[in-house]
Amino acid sequence: MSDKKPLLLFTSFGIHGHFNPTAQVAEEMVKRGYEVVYVIGHEFEAKIKQIGAEWVPTLSAFDLVTPEFQKEIVKLEPSLKGVVYSQEHIFLKHMPKRVQIIQSTLESLRQREPGRQIIVLDEALSMAIYPFKLGRPPPKGFKEFPKTISFNVIPLFIKSRDTAPFLLGIPPDSSEAGRQRNEELWNNVMAAEFGELVQIQTKYLKEAGATRFPEVPFDAWVTTKDVCFQMCIPSLEHPRSDLPSSVRFAGCVPKKPLDPSYQYPDWWPEFASIKGKRKIVFVAQGTVAVNYEELVIPSLIGLADREDLFVLATLGVRGAKLADDFRVPSNARVHDYLPYDPILELADVFVSNGGYGSLTHTVINGVPQVLSGVTEDKLEVGIRAERAGLAVNLGTRSPTPEQVAKAVDVVLSDPRYKEVALKLKEENEGYDTFGIIENQILEFTESRKS
Asked: Where in the numbering of this chain does the Erythromycin biosynthesis protein CIII-like C-terminal domain appear (predicted)?
């Protein structure tokens, strides 16, 4: 066995919310002296090379979101049928190809460095490792599949006696009556949509060479890995008395230093000078949901021309803009793409559609939220933030201007929201995220045990 540090093979699902935190871990491991190989779609090639890692191409997630898919998913969301459809066509259907690419990559790395240990670090929804943990033979040159550390960058979705099924948006309940409720709900969804999803998952697992097939959806994405880190803090997750010991909290990834070459908008000095004179409201819909009539425009209208507020909205896509006939209010600025952290350091409230990345950004900056959004995992994000006391959860995909304005006023007028935000920030600062992950790598390092 080589006395070199183990080679780290990373992979993640190729959209920003899944890639960014995983890539931040990869970048930090490069800085700590590890050789990193990252399997991801072509959109992220430059970024991978920039952080000093080796890039290996795989299927592009963006290419999977075809016009046909978008047309169909709009009909189905936010129902569980929409979840089943997106899971099949975005995640599971292409799993066999992703798995083959990982196998080829591992075999190539083994030929290149026959005696060197490899540790796999995957984002839980990548689907590229999953079948190996369910009976697919290991790649050539390996007696068994390498040790695997996984990162979950969405709300924790595994089955528990203390929680209702994932994606129903129901708060946890560990009382006797609550556990009975939870069991009944699980039986109901397993007899319907989740049962269908298990059948679909089994079909593609068989194609990918698996020999064991989970009886409930989602769980094995996390529980089959040697260790899975939930990339947040316990206070933002439902408590589970039966949480597997392999599932652990690592905290939210720290703020990433801004690229020195980044050029702020011309109006940035004006914005930065407003702190303390007006309350600052930051509005964003993330990088996937880009129908701005759902949240950005209602927020701008609802908070328009108020002398006590300054509203800053980002559209999440470089080059994006609002319709030419929309009048941006006098107390607002709109920009196509902005880094979150420099804004949140100044903001008093963050209006968001409930992406998990947005939630973690608010935690590390100590900012309360107003949340909308009920698609993908956003319903579950809203329940967790509301339960923690961090956010007003509107529970709708398209709030009215009046609903946004009322929620913003509630957050700004009730000091408890800011107090909770600062408490969660302090809790997160107690986690050395990168150190926790490296300690797990060291624990798995074979040369340390010889």
From this structure: 324-428
